[in-house]
Design a protein that fits this description.
Layout lengths: L1 E5 L10 E6 L15 H12 L10 E5 L8 E6 L8 H16 L5 E5 L7 H14 L18 E5 L7 H25 L7 H15 L2 E5 L1 H6 L3 H7 L7 E8 L8 E6 L1 E5 L19 H16 L4 E11 L11 E3 L5 E3 L7 H14 L4 E6 L3 H7 L4 E5 L2 H14 L3 E3 L17 E2 L7 H10 L7 E5 L5 E2 L9 E2 L4 H12 L1
Parallel strand pairs: 1-6, 2-4, 2-5, 5-6, 9-11, 9-14, 10-11, 13-17, 14-18, 15-16
Antiparallel strand pairs: 3-4, 7-8, 8-11, 12-13, 15-18, 19-20
Helix pairs in contact: 2-3, 3-4, 4-8, 5-8, 7-9, 8-13, 9-12, 11-13
Bound molecules: ligand BES, manganese (II) ion and zinc ion.
Length: 496
């Protein structure tokens, strides 16, 4: 998608479709509809009077040959309640416009900007919303609708010249949205095409293309480094595991912090010997969504070049039942030295993360953020809407929450509390790998946190938010790319 500013007055914009938005209750007289010529607004007032135009969120009204405009068509997108309007909603509106028009064979549109809204945040949000919306998980359809993409997306400024900051925001939005779509592509791959080895090749290829350092360790090294918890999960699979490490360091970055981004990379989770029911098991190809997001983040910062230091660590393996598989009751010795009794082989994510966190600390990380499809329980708690946020250090949790809000990814803090510790103890080892049904997302998170130790740590449980079960007006069904935007924002804001 080609995105550029167009500085003509709205009446003179020649794009195929000019897009504006208005708000609920007064769809013809607030938002960017206000910038239209009087003649055109008259038309909208009539549509409002006949209740064809309401301004309800994502309502799309397409008008052909609109009076007073050079554009062939005018699309009015409903902005919802004006009081709730902000950059997050603007991002979605742009997405809704894109998805509505591409479904109707439109390839070119001009999105209208309010002069006053030509600030960084707004431009970035619109660009992100447009690129993320122009995506479908249709790689494996032989009759793929490549035709249905938006080729040209204009940012129509109604006569205002874009500032340098607005131009930079366009580029930032592009980079971030492309990174998000890159992560979605990885998550969408089925496990026969995204084994740990193929996953590591994707990482290497991305790193080489964007000038990042990438190191991949295999089964021998994983065992030599005494990553007993990671290896316990990996030992049951015919596909050898990989530990993927990607580094980014700006030459002028301060020595600290070194941010460790750890992404769960289970390329398929059968549950192992504690095998999952067959219903919906195919969805477990997405159990590497945390790892995919972390790679997406690295791709974005390689292009944006913030003054920070980041180490990404992704333990990649399948979780399979076999004659070699680990079994309930087995005791594993993690890289940290802590011993773990395996109470359920389906609680494998926390095991691979345990060693990945220990390794990240060994590599010098001074703060840790992990993203993982860790528990079904988080979906019970928060549904598919909000990512669960857990952490040992409230300042870092607050940073992540603030970034999530700015990036338009919903997140909600969950408790971490000593009193839950008893739930995942073992009668024979230091820890048990499950804490039972109640508070399952919390005990899963806290188990991971045991391996962060005193290092500030934030855990994002994306089991519910990694995937959208239904199509939204602004987003295709399928992989979401959460939490790429939030993590990029965290790193960008650290640099300022
Ligand atoms: N990968 C799953 C969690 C998951 C569930 C992700 C649904 C995406 C959608 C994880 O490895 C798992 O199996 N967790 C268990 C933990 C339990 C055995 C303590 C769960 O949530 O049931
Ligand atoms: Mn599992
Ligand atoms: Zn899993």
């Amino acid at each position: 998608m080609n995105i550029e500013f167009q500085t003509q007055l709205l009446a003179e914009v020649t794009a195929n479709v000019l897009v504006v938005y208005g708000f609920e209750g007064s769809p013809a007289s607030a938002g960017t509809v206000e910038l239209l010529p009087t003649e055109t607004r008259q038309l909208l007032a009539e549509l409002e009077a006949s209740r064809e135009l309401t301004g309800k969120a994502y309502e799309c009204t397409l008008i052909h040959r609109p009076a007073g405009l050079a554009a062939q068509k005018l699309l009015v997108v409903g902005g919802g309640k004006k009081e709730k309007f902000g950059s997050a909603q603007l991002r979605r509106l742009a997405g809704a416009g894109v998805r509505y028009l591409r479904a109707r064979g439109v390839h070119e549109l001009a999105w209208t900007f309010e002069g006053s809204k030509l600030y960084q945040e707004g431009v970035q949000a619109v660009v992100e919303g447009a690129i993320v919306a122009d995506y479908d998980a249709d790689r494996y359809r032989t009759e793929r609708d490549e035709e249905r993409r938006i080729d040209r997306f204009w940012l129509a400024t109604n006569g205002t010249l874009p500032s340098a900051a607005a131009r930079a925001a366009l580029e930032h939005g592009r980079v971030i949205a492309e990174a998000q779509n890159f992560a979605r592509d990885l998550v969408n791959e089925p496990s026969n095409r995204m084994t740990p080895l193929l996953f590591s090749r994707q990482a290497e290829e991305m790193a080489a293309r964007h000038g990042l350092e990438c190191q991949v360790l295999g089964p021998q090294e994983i065992q030599e480094m005494k990553m007993g918890a990671f290896w316990g999960v990996a030992q049951g699979s015919e596909e050898p595991p990989r530990l993927i490490v990607v580094r980014y360091a700006h030459p002028e970055a301060p020595a600290a912090p070194v941010v460790g981004l750890i992404g769960k990379g289970i390329t398929f989770d059968t549950g192992g010997i504690s095998i999952k029911p067959s219903e919906n098991m195919h969805e477990m190809k997405t159990d590497m969504a945390g790892g995919a997001a972390v790679l997406g983040v690295m791709r974005a910062i390689a292009r944006l070049q913030p003054r920070v230091r980041v180490v990404a660590v992704i333990p990649a393996t399948e979780n399979m039942p076999s004659g070699k598989a680990y079994k309930p009751g087995d005791v594993l010795t993690s890289m940290s030295g802590k011993t773990i009794e395996v109470l359920n082989t389906d609680a494998e994510g926390r095991l691979v993360l345990a060693d990945a966190l220990t390794y990240a600390k060994q590599l010098g990380c001074t703060v840790l953020i992990d993203a993982a499809t860790l528990t079904g329980a988080i979906t019970i708690a928060l549904g598919n809407i909000s990512t669960g946020v857990f952490g040992s250090d409230q300042d870092w949790v607050n940073r992540v929450l603030a970034s999530a809000a700015a990036a338009g990814e919903k997140m909600w803090q969950m408790p971490v509390d000593e009193d839950y510790r008893d739930l995942y103890k073992s009668s024979i080892a230091d820890l048990g790998n499950t804490g039972g049904r109640y508070g399952g997302a919390i005990t899963g998170a806290m188990f991971v946190g045991e391996f962060a130790g005193d290092t500030p740590w934030v855990h994002l449980d994306i089991a519910g938010t990694r995937w959208s079960n239904d199509e939204k007006p602004y987003l295709a069904k399928g992989p979401t790319g959460v939490p790429v935007r939030t993590l990029v924002h965290v790193l960008m804001s650290l640099a300022n």
